[in-house]
Structure formats: structure tokens, C-alpha cells
Amino acid sequence: MDADVVVVGAGPVGLFLAAELRLGGIRPVVVERLEQPAAERKARGIGVLATEALTRRGLGPQLAAAHEEGMRDFARDHGSSLGHFANIHKILPDEDRPRTHIWQPELERLLADHAVGVPVHRAHRVSAIESEVDGVTAIVDTPQGEQRFSAAYLVGCDGGRGKVRSLAGFGFPGTPPLLRTIAGQVRFEGPVPPAGRYPGGTFLHGGSMAGVTESARDGEPGGPVTPAELAAAIRRVTGEDVVVAQVRDSRRFADQARQADDYRRGRVLLAGDAAHVHSPSGGQGLNLGLLDAANLGWKLAAVVRGEMPETLLDSYFRERGPAGAAVLRNTRAQSALLAPGPHVDALREIVGELMDLPQANRYFSDLLSGVRERYEFPYPAEEPVGLHSPEKSLVDDDGRITRLSDHTRTGRGVLVLDPESRDLAALAPKRVEVVPVTNTESFLLRPDGVIAWTGGEAELKGALDTWFG
Ligand SMILES: Cc1cc2nc3c(=O)[nH]c(=O)nc-3n(C[C@H](O)[C@H](O)[C@H](O)COP(=O)(O)OP(=O)(O)OC[C@H]3O[C@@H](n4cnc5c(N)ncnc54)[C@H](O)[C@@H]3O)c2cc1C
Questions:
Q1: Where is the FAD-binding domain (predicted)?
Q2: Range of the domain at 338
């Protein structure tokens, strides 16, 4: 075997997964078709759960450093610093659980540094896969000709148009595009109509960013958006002629919503956009994809180390499948609210009014962040078990204060024990760090930050057995 796991794609999800696998003590290798990291500024932020996942691995300071500038750019381009649902910018920030505004290329640089020590082979394009009972081989086109990379498992983190999904025979059901958007950093000459909704679509314009969202059409061209193309789209939507002198940093995207029918076929798994595509409304793709990586990384490492049975991998789709479906649902709802027409205008007004109610505002915030989504476990348990833990302060017996994330960098589980439960420490296996505290009730944290137990000794034994063997 050339590695324990071949990760296809050095996008954010592939890089984070590779780092997680390495933290789990196994040997991943990454193959990436691009010669250089992509400069395209797709995502401009990551959600609460992804921010917490990276903070658990010690990347909090880097995220905080990027956030300020990212936030400024967001407010400039969107005309508001508040979060939005279908461009209705009213969602108040969750002060206790912040998201991070960071441009995707910067995030990828940070993750590449974090994955230090993992071999990343660039200009390597996977063209075929051979799956066997005890391993899988990627056939890779490289500048030196065809090469073969064999491993125990292969994970397709090769994006929405990735090949691994079809090569391995996954289904990818879903809905075709309703809307398409073209946008970029634009220099106009002369007058520009006001931004907003028009009968034919939406004209987006804030700071130097401008674009158009309108009904999807057949034969969408590829490549960068040209000035003439954008001017024609603005004319279609607003009825006004504009002179577009320049379009930089352009993007075009649609809102098809599709999800793989499983995330594992034998020794081939999917994570990130390879497993689910949807509109970027609300900026949720990376929250979803990085959490796939967090969920899969420690499980796959434990199986490869031989400490856990392969059935542990069944919990990956059981937990992450519903998370993906939830994002498809809310992005479809956002697309419905972004469609042109007076009926939708009326619906948007009503949704906007609902968002003024504090409870409803919180509902939309939680919907986009996913913080209320609970994993179903194979043992009975009540909240907060199954939820991702927020960052917390922990006070030890001597009054010293640490953060929960100070204990999670090693990628092990964490058993936090209050003074009444200290004898339970004896149950903790090697891959679980015991942290005695005085300021919170006992809980068990999986390596992906999910609360796996609170309560009594019998339940703890069951939880440790389920997740750590
Ligand atoms: C305009 C826009 C705005 C967005 N804004 C946000 C946002 O604000 N927040 C958010 O969370 N998400 C946002 N998203 C979504 C986000 O960009 C994606 O969810 C994210 O890129 C997914 O990461 P990934 O690693 O799964 O896939 P990708 O980033 O697509 O990476 C896949 C990698 O695999 C490589 N690859 C493909 N095929 C092969 C092959 N055969 N062999 C080897 N390598 C291969 C590719 O070159 C690429 O590097 C936005 C998307 C768009 C289009």
C-alpha cells in the first residue's frame, strides 16, 4: 500500500480530512489535479460548527485574525453585516457561537499549513478507481504519466463535479437549477440602476461587487463572466442599459440541489461538495463539508488502526446524511424566496417581518448554523448528547482556567469529570483524555466535538464502547 487513505482533492475538505487522518495516527496521501491552489474567491466565510471544528485543532487565532477583514468585505458587498436568509439581511449574530468571515483561498492556505507532513501531489488527476475487497487503487494522470496509488480506503473530496462519485457508482439524486447567478468585482462607466428586485430577477450591487440572479436557462456558458454578458443580464433584469468597463474575480453559479444516496460504497467514501451540492445562499457549503471531514476523520483513522470495527463507518452517513439533507432543504427554500415575481415579493415581506421576532430570528440563525441538529446515536440519550459542544471554559481543582479547545488538539476524545464523578476516570481508554473540572457537569466529547454522554456510569460504559471500543 502507498498509504492508508488516498484523499482525492486538496480543496478545504480534502486538506482538513487529511490533517484529521494524520492526527489519528495513520498515513493519508492527497492527490490534486490543479498545479497550484485555486485563487477563486468562492466562499467568504465558514459557519459556527466549522469555526469550532478548526478551533478545536488550534486554528482559532488564525481564524480570528482573518475575520475582521472578511467581515469588512462582507458588509461592503452585501450592504449589511447581518446574516441573511435569501438575501433578507436580518439575522443577528450568535454572540456565544460566532462564525468566521474568511476568503476561501486564505482558508485553504491555512489548512494546507495545518496539514503539514501529509504528502500532497499536485497536477495529479484521478481518472479511474479499482476497488478490491481489501483495498482500493486510484489511477492517476500525472506529468510523468500514469501512476497508481493503492490504499485501504479512498475518499472523494473532489468537489461537486468530482469524478469519484460516478466512478464508484454513487447515485446523486436531487433537483435541477431554478436560478442562476453571475457576479464579480465590476467597474461601471456612467449611471447604474438601483440594486434590488425587479420583475425579471435581482440586481445585486454593493461596494464594487455587482451581479444578477435570474431564472436558470439551458446552455449556461462556462468560463469567466464577460462585461458584455453582465451588461446584457442587467438589461434583461432592470430594463436599463449600463456600461460595464471591467469584470474581475467573476463567478457563476446555479442552485441545483443534489445529495449522494450514500457516503460510502465499500472502501470508497465521499465528503464535502462531492457528496452534496446546493446553492451558496447563506454560506453553508463549508460548514457542511468541513464537518463531514471532522466526522469521518477520527472514525476512519480508528478503523485503519484496527481499534474499531468497520461498522463504525456506518455512523458517518447516518449522522452526516441528515445534515446534508437539512442544508438542501433550506437552500431550496431560499431559492424559492429569491425567484422573481410579485407573489414572491409578498412572501419575502412576510418572512422579513417574521425575522423581526426574536424567536424567529434565532430560528433562522440556528437553521443556517446547524447548531441545533442532533445526531442520532445507537443508544438512548437526551440532549445535549448528539449535539456539537460549544467552546467552554473549564476550571480545575486548583482554580486554573482552560478552554475546552485546549484539550482537543490531539484529536483524542475528552472525558470531562465533575467532582462527584472522578472515579469514572478509570473507565477512560487510551484515546480519551480525562479532564477534572469543578465548574460544569460531566460529559464525554468525541474527537469531532460531539457530546457523546452525560449521566451515569452504565451509560458512560456504553458510550465509550460505541465510539472508542
Ligand atoms: C460563489 C460561491 C460562493 C460560496 N460561498 C460560500 C460561503 O460563503 N461559505 C461556505 O461555506 N461555502 C460557500 N460556497 C461553497 C464552497 O465554496 C464549497 O462548499 C467548497 O469549495 C467545498 O469544498 P470541497 O473541498 O468539498 O470542494 P472543492 O473546493 O471543489 O475542492 C475539490 C478539489 O478537488 C480537486 N479535484 C477535482 N477533481 C479531481 C480529480 N479527478 N483528481 C484530483 N483532484 C480533483 C479540485 O481541483 C479541487 O481542488 C460558495 C460557493 C460558490 C460557488
A1: 2-331
A2: 5-172+258-369
